[in-house]
Amino acid sequence: MTISNDAVTARVLGPAIREHWRLFLVEGLVLLVLGSAAILVPVLASVAIAIFLGWLFVAGGIAGLAATLMGRRAPGLRWSLLSALVALVAGVAMIGWPLGGTVSLTFMLTAFLVIDGLLMVVFALDHRRGLSDQWGWILVNG
After folding, report:
1. Which among 22, 24, 60, 64 counts the fewest CB atoms within 10 Å?
2. Are 108 and 83 in the same domain?
3. How many CB atoms lie under 10 A from the CB of residue 93?
4. In this structure, are 70 and 25 located in the same domain?
């Protein structure tokens, strides 16, 4: 007899969910409030995201600098150092000027989505000529 994954999941998670339902409820309510605030005040949410991404870039730049300095003898030292410094500068700029970071992120995301969509259309058309019968879904994705 085979036991379905759903039955195993219910048997394992059921007691944990019943025991901590209040915690899950509070988490859901907090996320509901934060999501509503992001919808109602999108400028504030955008600035918060820009600052958060700025700190991620700073952390990535510091980690990149540390890795580059530890591996001084590795090939591509200059490029690795430049990459880490660019991440660090971008992070500091996003933290220092989050509105500018928000605008630039919007333009970068728009450019990425347009280019990615065009590439998906080309990819789908290329698959149409091949043996793939799923090219239509790829086209819709583009």
Report:
1. 22
2. no
3. 16
4. no
Handedness of CA 27, 95, 116, 82 (dihedral sign): negative
Structure tokens at 9: 């999941």
Query: Do 45 and 33 lie in a common domain?
Result: no
Instruction: Give the amino acid at 62.
Output: I
Number of domains the chain contains: 3
- Tell me the mean pLDDT in the region 10-26: 81
60-103 tens-digit pLDDT: 999 999 998 998 887 778 888 898 899 899 889 989 999 888 88
Which pLDDT belongs to residue 79?
A: 86
Do the beta carbons of residue 123 and residue 138 sit within 8 Å?
yes
Query: Both tokens of residue 55?
Result: 């700190």
What is the C-alpha separation between 9 and 4, in angstroms, rounded? 9
What is the reported pTM?
Answer: 0.61
Statement to judge: residues 48 and 63 lie in one domain: yes
For residue 29, the number of C-alpha atoms closer than 13 Å in the C-beta half-sphere is 6
One domain for residues 16 and 54: no
| Whether residue 122 is found in the same domain as residue 108 | yes
At what angle are helices 5-19 and 21-40 packed, to 10 degrees?
A: 90
